[in-house]
Write a structure and sequence with these properties.
The structure is a homodimer. The first copy, chain A, is mainly α. Chain A has 14 helices and two strands. A two-stranded antiparallel sheet of chain A has the order 1-2. In chain A, about 50% of the residues are buried. At the A-B interface, loops of A face loops of B.
Chain lengths: ~350, ~350
């Protein structure tokens, strides 16, 4: 049966109570997906930090810059290597002086459009994340913002790049402008994939397994949280709605999540819903990287969030769908900047 | 006076004893330089490891690969970031688990053509360096070559890349082929500069200060060791011919150099003569990174190797000449490879 505009609402009313998770019965999969997801835009703009070529150029150099870390080995790249889709492949990040961080490095791709940064939303946006990381003990561990500004002012090429990126600033080399430049670069890091082509109307962009997986993803209820352009990243949710997450992830220690930030009891075990763009390339999974295989992560999510026990075949199809979210890294982001010298 | 072919040998005989370090008096600076240096070739081939596009492709991926290090943070890039001209900017390298290495990371650019690798020549060639680094405690610190092979075999994309690079191998994923692939990539890393254009006959490629610096470099005697295509890298020499090096570099502890390798008394304080290509961009200087400014390094070399005390102006000119050795990183080396995923 094919639903037309005419009979759609009748059908909807009749069947909604019976199969609420399955969308409008007989509704075209693409139409159904179109109500829930959005293709990626060309970039992720911010009124507070307009993207300019000069900021991107500076920001990309700063992204690779390790001479602003206490031990001289940490740059943004360390935890967000572009060669590995912007995540480091570790359970939890390792920063300056080999300090182990409490949570898994989220990828920087498609990050700037999310509700907030990091797993518990303790970084407002990508600019805030860049700014705070330079003094974070588990990141760059610099003694203060002034020490970063001084280090950058000591490299003449950077003074020029800052001047070009912030032509109206009386003093261009500031931590605020550092954060804005990196933010502007990160706001360009979108990775359109086969799924975007599909959402834009190309029904051949997904194969059969991917389409079955998309349907299973929707039917299982995953899109209740993993929706929008980033297939997540737009809300906070308790991890372990049905059962404690750590019984399945074997997490040790148990992380209380956003409670750390707000001290609200309602935020206990609450985390930002991670976006699923490039999820196939950014193992291991969850806030503590406790699970290394994607299909196990999918099954755990169905179990502890939705109280479901999906069949192996269904999980495999969902995996296929998730692979269709692996996108193309922008050419410019794949060009290594040559950093300015000290003399 | 301008020396022509006709009167050259007479002039040479008369003046050689008087100013032996200065070359043939009145000899054209370019001719003089041409007898000592060579322009860089297109690559640095090895009969034992022919360079192929497939090996380069694999080798570049492996160069960025950190999933073959014990703590998951070390790739070749860590100590040889291409964004910083292939050296890490640290006094001495920091490897797996933050282990501090005894010596400064040499740049990988123009390295493959040198007499040996590392400061004391304890790595035969770039292939040997790549192979030994994966088990070196201060580098990747993997428990053995087998563990590296196993890790790579666990990433299906690599199995394909190895097969393409070594089509005749019964078992392509071996540590030997790992080393060959990285070696093939590194054998392409040449950085031709203004100095090469000059050596090839373009007299306008160097400015006045650079030419004065080249003349001072030759007159001072630097080219006694720093010669050839790499302006060094072709021989071993005692560091501190005239005076102990550590009195000037303030090195602590004192490094006995190649004596560590050969246990020959004649190798005490002997190091590979570092190549000076891109030296302006690869601070800090010397085997222990003890000196951070290039002009200080130049002055120390004149003092402890040649017993000279060059004027500030002369050191500055030599600095200008050394800047002309800063070359262009090959476009392909400036493209980040996207590494294969695990699943």
């Amino acid at each position: 049966m094919r639903v037309t505009g005419k009979n759609l609402s009748t059908v909807f009313v009749i069947f909604l109570a019976v199969r609420p998770a399955c969308g409008r019965v007989g509704e075209d999969l693409l139409d159904r997906a179109g109500r829930i997801f959005k293709p990626l835009a060309a970039d992720m703009p911010s009124p507070a930090n307009p993207i300019t070529p000069e900021k991107i150029r500076l920001g990309k150099a700063l992204f690779y810059e390790r001479r602003i870390s206490l031990d001289g080995t940490v740059s943004c790249w360390k935890c967000h290597p572009i060669s590995l889709y912007g995540a480091d492949g570790l359970r939890t990040a390792i920063g300056n002086g080999c300090k182990v961080n409490p949570r898994n490095s989220p990828t920087i791709f498609n990050a700037a459009g999310q509700i907030a940064q990091h797993w518990v939303g303790n970084r407002r946006d990508v600019e805030d994340q860049a700014r705070q990381s330079v003094t974070g003990p588990g990141s760059f561990n610099m003694p203060g913002y002034q020490s970063v500004e001084k280090a950058l002012e000591g490299i003449p090429g950077y003074v020029n790049l800052f001047r070009k990126a912030f032509p109206d600033a009386a003093r261009p080399v500031t931590i605020e402008n550092f954060a804005k430049a990196i933010g502007a670069f990160e706001r360009t890091l979108v990775t359109p994939s086969a799924f975007d082509a599909y959402l834009k109307g190309d029904r051949t962009a997904l194969g059969d397994a991917e389409k079955r997986g998309l349907a299973a993803f929707l039917d299982t209820g995953c899109a209740g949280c993993h929706a929008g352009a980033y297939v997540g990243g737009g809300s906070y949710q308790k991890f372990g709605v049905i059962a404690p997450y750590w019984k399945y992830t074997k997490s040790e220690p148990v992380d209380v999540g956003r409670f750390d930030v707000t001290k609200q009891e309602s935020d206990r075990y609450v985390f930002k819903v991670p976006p699923l763009r490039n999820v196939d390339r950014t193992a291991p999974y969850f806030h503590d990287g406790s699970v290394s295989r994607l299909e196990e992560a999918v099954w755990i999510m169905a179990k502890v969030q939705l109280g479901k026990d999906p069949e192996v075949r269904s999980v495999r199809d969902i995996h296929s769908f998730l692979e269709s979210l692996t996108g193309k890294i922008p050419d410019d982001a794949l060009k290594v900047p040559v950093l300015p010298g000290r003399e």
